[in-house]
Write a structure and sequence with these properties.
The chain is α+β, with helices and mostly antiparallel strands. It is built from three helices and six strands, in the order αβββαβαββ. Helix 3 links the parallel strand 4 and strand 5.
């Protein structure tokens, strides 16, 4: 019987860390309203759950229209990414869900301030219209980001 060659222990430890799925949680964003995590970190990537415009303190949708809701959503995402050890400049991909595609332009204006400032590589993005969102929100955004 041939001897089995085992990988070096440091390689095994590194691989385990790169493949270990960990939950990310922060009080700076609303608690998950279902059986899911605010975000999940896997290796050098973080995958957020979709955020709607819930105020983390009250648990209620912020008052106002699409601009106010988009701002709250992006502030929530910023808090989750900070808890994961990254920030909005490291976002690779976003998915935006809009209740009404007529809200695209005002949403996009706020989105650009947070995710596409001058000198930052803009993330890839998909935007889709949906029939309804949790808590009757106007917008929901999820992101994938790298951890530097």
């Amino acid at each position: 019987m041939a001897a089995t060659r085992l990988p070096h222990p440091s390689v095994t430890r590194h691989n385990r860390q790169m493949n270990e799925k960990t939950a990310v949680s922060t009080s700076g964003a609303p608690d998950a309203i279902g059986p899911y995590s605010q975000a999940v970190r896997l290796g050098d990537l973080v995958y957020t759950s979709g955020q709607v415009a819930l105020d983390p303190a009250s648990g209620q949708i912020v008052s106002g229209g699409i601009a106010e809701q988009t701002t709250r959503v992006l502030e929530n995402l910023k808090a989750v990414l900070t808890a994961a050890g990254t920030d909005l400049t490291h976002v690779i991909k976003t998915v935006v869900f809009l209740k009404d595609m007529n809200d695209f332009a005002p949403m996009n204006e706020i989105y650009a301030r947070y995710l596409a400032p001058e000198g930052v590589v803009k993330p890839a993005r998909s935007t889709v219209a949906v029939a309804a969102l949790p808590k009757n929100a106007l917008v929901e955004i999820e992101v994938i980001a790298s951890i530097p």
